[in-house]
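# nightly structure sweep
# worker-07 picked up a monomer target from the shared queue
# config: single-sequence mode, recycle default, output format = structure tokens
# input follows
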Amino acid sequence: MPMDLESLKTKFYQLVAPSLPNEWDVEAALEPLLDYEAEYLDGIFSQVPAIWPVSHSLCFAYLNAAGPALSCLAVEELSLWVHSLLDRYETGGLREARLFMADVEQQYACRLRGEGGVRLLDVRSRLQPYVNGLAGKEMPLVAADEVGTDSESIFLPNTIGVLQTHEHNFFLYKLIVSFQWASLSSGMYTAPQWLEVTRKSAHPLDRFFSGFSEPEKARSLYHIFETARVLNFLRHELPGLMREAGVILPLLPLTGDDSSQLNLLDWLQRGLLRGQWPVSSSSPLLARAVALMQRYQEEEVDNLVSLEAVRELMPLVPATEVFTGTSPLLFQGIMRLQEMRNLGAKEQTDKELRLMMTMKAQLPPKVNKTTQPHLEPGNTAGQEAADTALVIDTDSAWEQLPPFLHSLAQRIDNSESQPSEQAADQESSGKSGVVEQASSASGVGKSGQLFSRLSRGPADAKTEEKTVEPAVYDEWDYRRKGFRKNWCVVTEKELAPVHNTFIEQTLKKYRGQIRRLRYQFELLQTSERFIRRQRDGDDIDFDALVESLADVRAGHPPSDRLFIRLARDQRDIAASFLVDMSNSTAGWVGQSIKEALVLICEAMEVLNDRYAIYGFSGMRRLRCEIFPIKRLEERYSQTVRQRISAIGPREYTRMAPAIRHVSSLFAKVEAKVRLLIVLSDGKPEDYDDYKGEYAIEDTRHALLEAKAMGIHPFCITIDRQAHEYMAHMYGEVNYIFIDKINQLPSRMSEIYRTLTS
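# output follows
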């Protein structure tokens, strides 16, 4: 029985509490649902808690679209549809999510049945290793409006849905990347020697096309002839792919269907895809073009043949023949010649700069300090003599360079004189003017200025905060029972060492305890155990002997495994300590955590256990920060001690991204036992809506992911409310609560000894 509007509003407000949306927005979203039965309404409303925290606008749009969606989906399929809807929203925004909901049949139901379009986002993980294997290097796949390549990346459409089935559309993606790779490997963009190549200008092929009265026609002709050549190249290099392509190519859409209106490009496309070559034609242009293109199927040639074909055919193409209405084939894409030229120019400049630096390193020193005249204070004549010696030495080095490097240096010198630098020079014109006058007066020319620039070293790396490339991780959303893809950005940041007396005071304060810990840890270096029922050993296994005698009495053959052997096993343990650096650790909490780290490091120096220490903090999902205090293979040194001293309160406690990051690093470590020990003073929480049950469930899932990698997590917490959620996150025996913070340093070492004994 349908429900009334007030009942629907009451139910909706209960689901989104404590939020209080505008009543008129709620009524507008719920009115289309009044005619639906209770069963359908329960299914629709069951997804509201998953969508509302992500976007209120998306939730209202969902309520408007959910009813029509049930015309092609079963109620139990709504959760899967909503999961895909949220993925679309988080990757493409509200507009893409609305487009996804507007056509449920094509956007989702067809895919559910194995039909319909394919998204690049869904297939990139399969395509990227494939194209990297073809190219022999990393060649990123980038979403773009038009297919093509700039020689470093391959550009693909966001979605392909021109064919009927999911498999065919995926194969079309594969054909596109194969064709773009083959266009580079077969030399489609190679400039022949007779085409002039000049610096900082258009691509040589563009200059070739500009030699005709209609360059775009020449460009289109060259591209279609090269397409035929590249397809023939693929038939030799990837015959299996092209056998499958024989089924797909005839299905691709073409521009026109009226044979009386087809232009030259239309006919050549039909011939390539469907073998519909014109049998007879009164057009000498078409007949000659077909004859030239069919040559590619008979022999292997280079792009010179295509250039000659363009040169031969362009005079025959009438001015009334228009190619603009004929779109390139989907796998063809467009030729990005200028982008290739720009990348090539940049690579050439970088190469020349590296060459100059190499030459500079091999040159003799500019000034021989042992032969410099001694300068008395106020001795201007001696100063002038030193300046002259410097100029002569620099110019001598300059003359030692090969002649071709002189012009190269001139180009580099010119390239560095940018407007921004000139503006900066003008701001300090007083000082720079004096320097320039002095250089001019002493006779230092461009060679001296150039070598002066080359002698400038990079900034001192120790004074800069080093960072590595950020890592992106999913986040578990328990409400939708799925991940928010690529949601959290984790950045490793170097923790600047702090020089203070903290380490000395801690070692002095706990010196007696450290001695005891070292002794206890020495006993852990090897473990001893008895192995029973061995063929040889140190003592007799009486249980096995009794069983053997009983077997003899019973008429059975006795066992020869009658001994006990004492086995000494070497430890193979790796541990990673993950330290909470949120702002709630200020004061005695942070002090005790640092003291505990010092004690555990000092004690573990007598073991062979490998261990790492990472701090974590951050604010919101795009700024999750990890601070390496001691990496796994790094020795416990003075620098590590100073990093421990630098540990201090920062921001919030978004714990799951840190766990996922450390687990991903730890998963590559070969060890019999891998421990992940988390030190935290509270539950996971962040500035945004990352709190409560959501944060706990995400952290729990991150710990489950770590366990799936063979990593054993354990938590040491000082949160007095830990019993409410720790057992759920870590498991009943995988955490410990320390109620007195001053006990943390001594208890932490005992806990580690217990875990690894």
